[in-house]
Design a protein that fits this description.
355 residues, three-stranded antiparallel sheet, 15% strand
Length: 355
């Protein structure tokens, strides 16, 4: 890869093409034919080691937002090579050992997928069926919702909460940003889940001239645009703040709807929200305030909403902690993989039979 990359993944990844037919590549890729006397598999592992220790970054030039690898400069970097027969032995060894490591990583990643499924099921069941399995049920009248506890109601969100959008003051106007003290949030903050701070601040002039709504604590924020995983995600706001046009605030009116319960309810509908805003026939996928006001919510009594939210906070915290441990284990395994490749291609270990 000679053009692309980013801060956390610099340009310069090398892969081996093993297709059965000839192929062409884009201008973002440099083709490197392998000379006689060299093993393509060994060279792939060698470049992986060079990438891991960031040798490639010495040949990166960046004048715009895209990184460009000076491949001529990169290929002048010195490296040590055994004879081609030993290159093949090293490559075969690494093929076997990395395959075992990759299989272990795949199992752990599958475990994370199962935890996500368990988490979603737990939340969905709690916000649609409640915590008491013996309670009397009734038909909700909504196909996907099915039966809900008999003492619950199904109500449009717009009847229970104020729903509104934010905006972004012009970046070209210093009066809107310099020495700003009022919190202003972008959709990136949605990943905090519980928002207690801001990364950017606007001025009183911006609040006044740009008609920015002041969103109060106890509101739920939802990201409404984007093709990545952000669109449809929600967070609970615990500070007063303004928001960008890529976020919508949902502020419950009175005590009929509890924000903690609402966040979990919308979290259970994440995939549905993304599907409904998939942008079919348009150029950009997005949710709208009107659509969010129209959504039906299964509404328990306020005290039951608080109990459900507290239960889910504890249960999901346990699942999230377990996922974090698994991800940490995956990182450690991948570090061992990198270390193994490094040791083999630099001769720190001898993988020849009988060595």
């Amino acid at each position: 890869e000679k053009s692309g990359g980013g801060e956390n993944q610099p340009v310069g990844t090398v892969v081996l093409y093993e297709g059965q037919t000839s192929a062409v590549c884009s201008n973002f890729i440099a083709r490197m034919p392998v000379a006689n006397g060299f093993s393509p598999r060994f060279l792939t592992y060698l470049h992986a080691e060079l990438y891991a220790v960031r040798i490639n970054t010495r040949s990166i030039k960046q004048n715009t937002g895209i990184q460009n690898l000076d491949s001529a400069s990169y290929l002048t970097e010195p490296a040590a090579f055994p004879e081609v027969e030993e290159q093949s032995v090293i490559a075969a060894f690494l093929d076997r050992e990395t395959a075992k490591i990759d299989a272990l990583v795949a199992k752990k990643e599958r475990l994370i997928e199962l935890l996500h499924e368990q988490r979603t099921s737990l939340i969905t069941n709690a916000v649609t069926k409640g915590l008491d399995p013996s309670v009397a049920m009734k038909e909700s009248g909504v196909e996907w919702l099915g039966e809900i506890p008999a003492h619950w109601a199904a109500i449009r969100m717009g009847r229970l909460a104020d729903v509104g959008n934010g905006s972004t003051p012009s970046r070209d106007n210093a009066a809107y940003w310099v020495d700003g003290a009022y919190p202003w949030l972008t959709s990136a903050k949605i990943n905090d889940e519980i928002i207690t701070s801001a990364d950017e601040f606007v001025t009183a002039t911006a609040l006044r001239e740009c008609h920015l709504p002041k969103v109060c604590p106890g509101s739920v924020l939802i990201a409404i645009t984007g093709e990545g995983q952000t669109r449809g995600r929600t967070a609970l706001l615990e500070i007063e703040s303004a928001i960008s046009q890529h976020l919508v605030y949902i502020t419950p009116r009175g005590s009929r709807l509890q924000a903690g319960y609402l966040r979990r309810y919308l979290e259970s509908r994440y995939l549905w929200l993304r599907s409904e805003s998939s942008g079919a026939g348009s150029t950009r996928a997005a949710l709208t305030c009107e659509f969010l006001r129209w959504i039906l919510i299964a509404v328990p009594p306020a005290n039951e909403q608080r109990a459900i939210a507290a239960f889910l906070d504890q249960a999901t915290a346990r699942i999230d902690a377990l996922e974090a441990k698994i991800r940490q284990a995956i990182d450690q395994i991948r570090q061992l993989r990198t270390a193994l490749i490094s040791a083999a291609v630099t001769g720190k270990i001898d993988v020849r039979e009988g060595a």
